[in-house]
Every structure is written in structure tokens, then in C-alpha cells.
Amino acid sequence: xxxxxxxxxxxxxxxxxxxxxxxxxxxxxxxxxxxxxxxxxxxxxxxxxxxxxxxxxxxxxxxxxxxxxxxxxxxxxxxxxxxxxxxxxxxxxxxxxxxxxxxxxxxxxxxxxxxxxxxxxxxxxxxxxxx
Length: 131
Description:
Elements: H1 4-7, H2 14-30, H3 35-41, H4 45-55, H5 59-68, H6 74-79, H7 81-89, H8 92-100, H9 108-117, H10 122-126
């Protein structure tokens, strides 16, 4: 997956559709415990799986990636991509998880814009933002 911070491309575009069509059946058939084998076979996959987990509101996958695989990356933490994906999807549980894991929004304005654009002002409560 491309570096979404550098390209400013929405990480939840068509690339996530490709990830969904490949990862969803693989996870159903193999489970999280086999994910490290997949990461060895495809070294660039962890970033895509991070976005996949957030986009699909899969806190279980995110917990596995962060705690078991230590994939809390400075790249995503600093550019706010994961938090924006969670906000756009209205995934309150993921927004809370990311905040507890140390992800910080890029700016209050961008958070409010993302949530408003997605018509999901309810996620702002997870950040204790009042509009």
C-alpha cells in the first residue's frame, strides 16, 4: 500500500476494496493466529491490514496488530490516517481504541470536517469534542 501521508490519497478508497476482497475470506479461513505467516510472505502487508482493521471497525484485529505484532507505527500515528478512516466510517469503538493507543488527531478542524462530511457527528463524542 502506498504511503498515504505522502500522497494525501484517501486510504479508504478502492485500495480498501481490494484488501476487503482478499483479506476477509483469508481471515475467515485462517484466523488471526496465522497473520504473522502472511506478513512474512508479504512484508508490505501490515500497513494495509492496519487500514483494513480500522475501515472495517475490527478492534480485534487492531488489538492483535498492536499488542501481539507491535505494529503501532509512527507513520500512521503522526499523519492521522487511521483516525480519519475511523471517523469517516463512524466507528466509535475504533476511535476510542485509537485514542487510547495514543493516536492523536491531526487537528481539531480536520476531525470535525471528516466527521461532518461523513455525517457522523456521534464519533466526536468519543473524542470529547463539542460542536
